[in-house]
Amino acid sequence: MTTALAGCLGGSSTDGLTIGHLAPMSNPLGIGSKRTADMAVEELNSDGGFNGEDAELITKDTRTDPSEAQSVTEELIQQENVDALVGTFNSETTQSILDLTAEFDVPFMITGSADPGLITDYTGSDYEKYKNIFRIGPINSDFQAESIADYCAYLNDRHGWERVAFLRDQAAWTEPFGNQIPDLLSERGLEIVYEDALSIEGVDFGPVMSDIDDSNADFLLRFFAHIDGGDMLTRWHEGEYEFGIEGVHVPGMLPSYNGPAAYNGAATYETTAQSGAAGVAPITERTQPFVEDYASRYQDAEKSPIRAPMYMGFNTYDGIHIFKEVVDSLETTSTRDNLDDFVSEMLDIDFTGVAGQVSFFGKDSDYPHDVEDERGEDGKITNYPMTQWVGTEEIECVYPEKQRTAEHQMPPWMN
After folding, report:
1. Integer Cα distance of 354 and 125 in angstroms
2. What is the mean pLDDT of residues 387-394?
3. Helix 287-298 vs helix 311-330: angle between axes, to the nearest 10 degrees?
């Protein structure tokens, strides 16, 4: 799928600045990301452009498939001569194009993939080869694991919950959770009483729910990006299971997920961590105006997401704004011919975005060019907020305290 913004430069894409956007366009995450990329380029073109140039945005559908991602990325680089790439969702797809972007010195800003290995195994292992790669967000899964462990400690303080069932996708992005969560929870006085990694090809939640119930867990901590947990949530409400459902559930970030056209309230009381906190909390002074603008633009759109773009869209919007700051500072949009200077400017970035404050780890860090974790005075990570469904359309931010709009609610049948 290829989309160029109306009013952008005419003629061949080689005649001016071109930004390539990569996303799964059959997935609401990809739709939201494309829309925010459109918004960012339109806004910036009308406000002086990128070092005085208008940008053309070209979106390609990765179809969440590594071979398709390679094909469309090669097209963007070789035929469209893009000056930067932004996007990608699942880590396996992102990984498949890293060599290609590095070979042609194309700045690549990851906005949807959390696997630490995308940084540590590439920029971290061969810096000169892969210095073109940056992650705008979300924070990587190592930091996510730490942040969610602290969130579990909050649940323990609030509700006395100590016994944890632990489920995750069988996917690269969840491997750090599998490696770290048991020890992180143990350090905080919590006990894992049930654990499994579920095939992303399909799962029968009936036996899973029974096993969790039999474990006497106080709550389920699950990490689902590829698995839609809607059936689990429906069973949870109908059966009034005596455990909470917490963690990360990417499908549940869809603003219409809990409405009558989808799961009709079954997600109420579940939580999920997400960049931008779905726009319900003032993460920065830019967050809520951005979401209001998005909702106004797309309120009549046929395809979701309509009220907010989901986490990848927040990061994509920030990534394009950061790219403008960098090329304005460089005083050139020829980023591929000036990659060293581009990298140097990126490493100086301290940007107030819609998803939070964005800055990057340096060359000699454990995660070179990864987005930095933000921490409060207590040393706990603050840029991975947790949201909770409290109605069919109502969401609150329940963690961390800095951004909290409401305290976490226990399902009423558990009281």
Report:
1. 31
2. 97
3. 110
Domain 141-273+377-414 belongs to what topology?
Rossmann fold (3.40.50)
Relative to beta strand 84-87, strand 17-23 is parallel
Show me where the domains of the chain are located.
13-138+285-358, 141-273+377-414
C-alpha span between 188 and 156 (Å, rounded): 9
User: What is the average per-residue pLDDT within 14-23?
Assistant: 88
Would you place residue 118 in the very low, low, confident or very high pLDDT band (cuts 50, 70, 90)?
Answer: very high
Say what the pLDDT of residue 15 is: 63
Q: Give the span between the Cα atoms of 275 and 357, in whole angstroms.
A: 11
Whether the predicted pLDDT of 13 surpasses 60 = no
- Output the six-digit token pair for 103: 């070979």
Surface-to-core class of residue 227, CB atoms within 10 Å of its CB (0-12 exposed, 13-18 middle, 19+ buried): buried
What lies within 8 Å, CB to CB, of 289 at 6+ separation is: none
Separation in Å, CA 389 to CA 57, 153, 337, 394: 34, 20, 47, 6
pLDDT at 206 over 60: yes
Give the sheet arrangement for strand 191-198, strand by strand: 191-198, 163-169, 219-224, 244-249
**CATH placement of domain 13-138+285-358:** 3.40.50.2300
Cα–Cα distances (Å) from 239 to 165, 208, 414, in that order, read 17, 13, 12
The total number of residues shown for the chain amounts to 415
For residue 14, the model assigns a pLDDT of: 45
| pLDDT interval class at 405 (50, 70, 90) | very high
pTM across the whole model: 0.94
Asked if 13-138+285-358 and 141-273+377-414 have one fold, the answer is yes
